[in-house]
Design goal:
This protein is α/β, with parallel strands linked by helices. It has six helices and five strands. Helix 3 packs across helix 4.
Length: 156
């Protein structure tokens, strides 16, 4: 079985994430969406809310599961879950430059490969930070997030 991990904080999950994960699901038998927590970040949604929103978003997508990543290295998480690949979406050259050293380190630590998927052009400008900022200032983000996320953003 070919299993991949799509890691991220997903605060909030947006259509760019959804598009990359859906494409990954067509390439792998199973995709684990690993919801992580970076304690240096300030989150809009709690870890439990982010897990709930991601699980609701992917409930109908065959072969996709959502789990908390927990503490520790992504490479170790992949080994513990039997994943042979990490899938990362790339929006720009800057994303590649940021992700490449981590991809090499993960491969050297546990042999897990990183697969880069280019973002769909209609979502290449999206980031969770931008979504949060636009929504907090009253902007319409309906075309950029799943309906459950839109509802939660509107609730405050």
């Amino acid at each position: 079985m070919r299993r991949a991990v799509c890691p991220g904080s997903f605060d909030p999950i947006h259509n760019g994430h959804v598009e990359v994960i859906a494409r990954a699901a067509s390439l792998f038998d199973e995709v684990i969406v690993a919801v992580s927590t970076n304690y240096a970040k300030k989150y809009r949604f709690s870890a439990e809310e982010r897990l709930e929103l991601a699980a609701g978003t992917f409930k109908a997508l065959r072969g996709v599961s959502v789990v908390p990543m927990g503490d520790g290295l992504l490479a170790d998480f992949c080994r513990e879950h039997g994943a042979t690949a990490i899938v990362k979406g790339l929006r720009s050259v800057q994303d590649y430059q940021y992700e490449l050293p981590m991809a090499v380190m993960n491969r050297q630590l546990t042999g897990v490969e990183t697969v880069f998927l280019a973002a769909e052009s209609s979502y290449a400008h999206l980031s969770s930070s931008l979504i949060k900022e636009v929504a907090s200032l009253g902007g319409d983000v309906a075309g950029y997030v799943p309906p459950t996320v839109l509802k939660r953003l509107a609730e405050g």
